[in-house]
Amino acid sequence: MSTTPLREPGDSIYYEDGVLFLLDQTLLPTSEVLLELDTHDQVVDAIRRLAVRGAMAIGVAGAYGVVLGAISAGSSEPGVVRRAARVAIQEIGASRPTARNLFWALERMDAVLQRGASDTTTELIARLRGEADAVALDTIETNRSLVECGQELIGEGAVAITHCNSGPLAALRYGTAVGVLMEAHRRGKSPHVYVDETRPLLQGSRLTAWELGRAGVAYTLICDGMAADVMRAGKADLVITGADRIAANGDSANKIGTYGLALAAHAHDIPFYIAAPFSTVDPACPGGDAITIEERDPDEVRYCAGAPVAPPSAPVYNPAFDVTPAGLIAGIVTEHGVLRPPYTESLLER
Ligand code: MRU
Question: Tell me: the pLDDT tens digits for 120-135?
Fold first, then answer.
């Protein structure tokens, strides 16, 4: 049996014998269903419909999707397998545009295809599989370090607000922003987390609340519109979220609603932090205006958890992400420490 070397109980993504196993995040918290994917088309579909979501999780799923694309070519001819892997890279790359980590992972897979011109099919597939494992392992190790680096921001009994989901479901085993708070809990600091429900798809209430509850972290669920009032009432010490893409100047794209949270934090003199690894940073992107923001199906806003909450043809604006300008970000927690402004310098210095 050939299992991902990194599989541990509780992991929501792992690979075994030509099958990618994913915990279907669309069904949480009511059902825990493991999807078994054996083609890259299925991986594309899982990423598009958010069965796997979160910047780093889709990067890892995408890397294994390339392995599946190569295997399902079903050919002993290396050229045919190489072409199938390239098609998989292209189609997986077209699934969601915003998260840098997806492209970071696919670029690594593409680099494997550039090497070993005389490889047999078996060698080529083994090298692709090895790189996908390395992408997953790097993601885990990076986040292990990131959640430790974030501890300098979390005092005893700290109260944080977070948005969307940046725990292990989104970023493998340790998570990023939610992972920093989970690590604080493991260290006995007794943090309390206000969890924005995160409309339209409720990643906060469905996923973050589920993860924090299972980890034993104290939390309070709020609707997105309540966060500013929590701050005004003096109930929060900090705001911390993940990111999907960080531009070279520190502008950071994250789940829609993050920008409003950062503005409210600024108005109340509460520090707003981003937690994301360097694989989320896009040095080729000079600022937030250059980040491609995904727009999703209007029905995600017209319906809530499957129930209609608007006239069926209500005109809708549904960007999946917004950009928080660097000037509102007090620090970026990375695997190399907490970066401070100006980010044009600190992002380059590590
Ligand atoms: O649309 P989603 O659920 O994939 O959006 C995810 C987020 O916005 C997360 O906060 C982000 O990926 C950072 S966690 C790795």
Answer: 999 999 999 999 999 9
Residue appearing with tokens 């109260």? 159
Q: How far is the CA of 321 from the centre of ligand 1 (A)?
A: 9
Q: Is the pTM above the cut of 0.85? A: yes
The set of residues, in sequence order, having a beta carbon less than 8 Å from that of 233 and lying 6+ positions away, is none
CATH topology of domain 13-145: Four Helix Bundle (Hemerythrin (Met), subunit A) (1.20.120)
Q: Say which CATH architecture domain 152-346 belongs to.
A: 3-Layer(aba) Sandwich (3.40)
**Interval 307-336 mean pLDDT:** 98
Atom number in ligand 1 closest to CA 101: 15
Give the pLDDT of residue 5. Answer: 55
CATH 3.40.50.10470 segments of the chain = 152-346
Query: Whole-angstrom Cα distance, residue 133 to residue 103?
Result: 16
Torsion, Cα of 28, 165, 196, 150 (10° steps): 140
Average pLDDT rounded to a whole number, residues 78-106:
98
Q: Is 260 helix (H, G, I), strand (E, B) or coil?
A: helix
* Contact in structure between 31 and 51 (CB atoms under 8 Å): no
- How many A from CA of 51 to the centre of ligand 1? 12
- Verify whether ligand 1 is closer than 6 Å to residue 249 (CB atom): no
242 lines ligand 1 (CB under 6 A): yes
Quick: pLDDT tens for 43-70.
999 999 999 999 999 999 999 999 999 9
Closest by CA to 179, choosing from 320, 188, 170, is 170
